[in-house]
Amino acid sequence: LPTPPHISDQPEALVRLCGVVRLALLASVTQHTDQHLIRFTFAVALHLVGRYDEAVGVVEAYERTLEGSDEPSKEPYEYSEMLLYKNTLYEEAGQPQKALDDLDAIKEKVADRTGWRERRAALLLAVGRHGEAGEEYLALLKRNPEHFGWHAGLQAAELQAATPTERWLSAEVTAEAEATLAALYSKLQKAYPKSQACMRLPLDFTRSPPAFAAALDAYARSYVRKGVPSLFADLKPLCAEGAWSRVLFGELVAGWVGALEATGAFPDTCEKEPPSTLMWARVLLAQYYDSCGDTAAALSQLDMAIGHTPTCLDLYLFKARVYKHAGHASAAARWMEEARKMDLADRYLNTKATRYLLRADCVPEAEATIALFTKDGGSTLHEMQCVWFELELAASYLRTGDYGRALKNFAHVEQHFADIGEDQFDFHTYCVRKMTLREYVKMVRFEDTLHGHAFYVTAACGIVDTYLRIVAKPARDAAAAAAEEAGGGLSVQERKKAESKRRKAEAKAKAEAEAQAKRDADAKGKDGKGGKKGGGKEKPPDDDPYGEALASVEAPLAKAAGYMRTLLLHAPAELRVQVLACQLAMARSKPLLALRALRKALSLGAADAQVHRSAARFLHLYRAGGAALAPAVATVVERHSAQILAAAGLPTGATAEAYNDAFLARAGGGAAAAAVVAHAEVRALVAPAQAAAAREALASLDLQQASLAVCKEALALLEPGGALADAAAAAAFRQKAVARFPHAPAFGGGSGDEPPPPPSGE
User: How far apart are CA 149 and CA 650, in angstroms?
Assistant: First the structure.
């Protein structure tokens, strides 16, 4: 047989056809038994298809060829990695005891002593030898007491558990388990008094209020004294919505502030603190108030802190964050700019300012800001694969209705992931040659889940959403035109003024784009060819810089369907993916695809308002005679619709209107406001005659229990172009909402929130 090409030359390696690779390499192994590169590639191929025993056989066959040679002593690290890889095969094959015995046997041959001990501790835990596992984890913590993974292993050993628990906040903790862990960490805190992890972890599993307050005080007080800006980021999960410790956290920090104001010392002590301690205690309290939605109290505390130390830039950053949560993106961007200007050499502040400007839809200012830390005036951001910037830029263009540029930037992110997928090609030979087989398998598995990464999912969902908006745009424009002709709450003069403003904005955007293109061209010319020193290749011109071709494809829904197939394959557990898949399938008149996505979405989050909108729309569209279906399709739709209705406690013949009412009846707690808005929107669709009652439901909405996003959704329904458009109802809701969110421009609030001009002479 001729020698087959190496695995790196086979496209099968990239598309994970490991069976094909295995057969090709089998022939190669029989011909070239002395080539370890081919042997271990064969072993990895067997590993990836789950044939662990055969993979172990390949490794052991190579081990036998090394008997009597000096290869292990010449390359001790590569030999060690080979042995650990074989041990991993035993573990993944479901043989922890065999893996443990093998690990003990190869102890003296392993170069990575810490890795060996870590594996042994995990295997001891898996086979139920908790005492020995605890000893191993204690030995590891002696080396690094800040390793949270080792702490989780030690906790599992103490509790006699088979698997570690790394997230105690949402887990059930019995009184016995709490006492066991408390005793453990009492010892660890004495052994490692400077360890942050030993002080922080008890806050997650402690359920006794007095013990929690004492632990929080002991942990956080020293960081308040030191003025650590990131303290609240560490403690934020403890005061999240629904956390039992939320109220206790606020009471403790408010007590600190009160005592420091009154006596200059913490409670239960006479030791005077420096003035900065009170300032940082106010910062912590302000961030707590912000997390609870009390914007006024948060701003009050921050204003007092700024009055005390106006040169502390972190205070302006926190104030910008408060305005962001309050719904005032423009004020948030301006306050973040104030922070950035206080340290122009800080890349983090530059990045934050850019992000906030993009969220305020100030694209030219954002591009100018980010360009301060890039070459060629920011034109290299795409080559640098700056994904966060492109996602924020695309989202800004999507909000402002510039669908072409939104698609362009979303497509840039999608291309980055395609490049990452192709870049793995070089590692197929490199990793095997260097014998880093464990990391190679991790890399291959990561590549298999690459298109499930949050960045890719956001970009692909953005592309699908944009195409759906493009398809729906004519109907929206017609509805908006009809609303304008009917008055829409605006006079003729006001409508002319709005149109003039829109045209000026478009002209300004076009001029800025041309200026940016000119700057990019000038930057290229500075260094000769392509802007690269040394005569690099000139980058080919972009034939579609504004995404006009992407936005004007002949079949936008078919284009979106291609991205959706990738999302459903790699991110099926994402609720937003399934909801979007259902919406896309209904727009394409594909009832079975819509039904499949809807069933998955209901299994992921039946109480979600967006899921309910999709389910009610599906029932209304395909069970109320609104769409003609083939007999076989109709049978499938009817059977599964009956199951959806039964899950809601309704009979088979129930209507979409009854399903909508049942959803509202089931909703409660924090989801009640979102359910009311979703119910009103669906009501306008399935029962147009009840539009007045739906408006009344929105008017009587308890905004104290509603989030800013929910209030914006409700207002959008009442404004021109909305499903329940009514100028008077929109004005009344806006007035009610601004009392709840006084800093949100969406409701007419936020005047006076911009930072004042700097004093003269400073």
Answer: 47
